[in-house]
Amino acid sequence: MKKRNLLIGVLLVCFGFLILSPKVRAEADKTYDQLKLFIDVMSIIQDNYVEERNGKELIVGALKGMVKTLDPFSQFMEPDDYKELKTETEGQFGGLGIRISIKNEWLTVVTPLPRTPAYRLGILPDDKIIKIENESTLGITVNDAVKKLRGMPGTKVKISIAREGVVEPIDYTITREIIKIETIKSKMLTDNIGYIQLSEFNSNSYRDMSKALEDLSKAGMGSLILDLRNNPGGLLDIAVSICELFVGDDKLVVYTQGRKQESRREYRAIGKALYGKLPMIVLVNRGSASASEIVSGSMQDLKRALIMGTTTFGKGSVQTVLPLPDGNALRLTTAKYYTASGRTIHRDEKTGKGGVMPDIIIDVPKEIESKLYAQSEEIYNLKRSTDNAKKNEERVSDTVLERAIDILKARTLINSLKEE
Fold first, then answer.
1. Is the dihedral of CA 373, 377, 379, 380 positive or negative?
2. Which fold does the domain 184-419 belong to in CATH?
3. What is the Cα gyration radius of the chain?
4. Which fold has domain 92-180?
5. pLDDT tens track for 275-309
6. Which residues have a catalytic role annotated?
7. What is the pTM of this model?
């Protein structure tokens, strides 16, 4: 009886479509046929499948499957899934310290977060997590993976990594920790070169960035290196606000465009930039995604900064979370980001094209990058001392950062010669 009532409801909806235009009626006919097929299959499963399945379970599975066909970032979320999303946005949870996505049906690391278990062990962007607790992740959803990877602090989880250029999988047993996301680290690298590492764009990032720039300016900063390597992104409005520190005069920073032309929304740099004339270099790599690609791509388009490193991740889409009845929600890709020149940074899964290509490409080998991660926050300490000579011999050089420093030093020297 329930199945019959459901079918009648569908028929009534479709009947309502029939009073519309011939074109809409034709589309409605197709929709009706497809819905009828869905109901027929659902009825057959309920009547004949070897184990009993209730209607709600089948419908939820169908909804998840439907959304999964769209892209790796859209997701139908049941109440528990929705709560997990809210937990992540609060910025503190028990886990490994990695941002993950799905690439070619495999769970893939976007970036490890600084000063977390995954970061210290040397897990890298683009590493494929092929097993969690000896179970294959092929075809797994991001949300299901999050459930398996997160847990009580102090507990352990075993994962297997497939890495490009490494023949055998790499096994890690990782102890979960409370992950607290710190967004800003700053210091003076030389007498006049300032350095800011921004690890994520959250609600505090603009305030912290402004404070860091103010402190560095007082310390004598004449040029800046902004490090967005392994920055997975975050809030769009914060990314735009940070751009406004370096560009102004109503310049277009980024715009979003959905399927409909009228959905375009522009984000401009309002007012005068406090640091509009500060020479700067932006560092990126394959772990730089989303909002960090907006900043680096727009700064590149506006010829405001030199971009150095490796091509970025290529995550240039906008996800909108839409609450649904009974605590469910739909995270749906509704638009794409476009930089000031109109280019999209979103990576095409078929061609592999996308991301922000640096002005100066420095491709760091995987094994070196792994050692740099293992050195954690110490990797940016370029000072050497005789007391630490042995320890320093074991370190690897951060060639991208060192090259950026050399360029800014050369620029300062050239400017001083011109003044003479």
1. positive
2. 2-enoyl-CoA Hydratase; Chain A, domain 1 (3.90.226)
3. 25
4. Pdz3 Domain (2.30.42)
5. 999 999 999 998 899 999 999 999 999 999 999 99
6. 290, 301, 315
7. 0.70
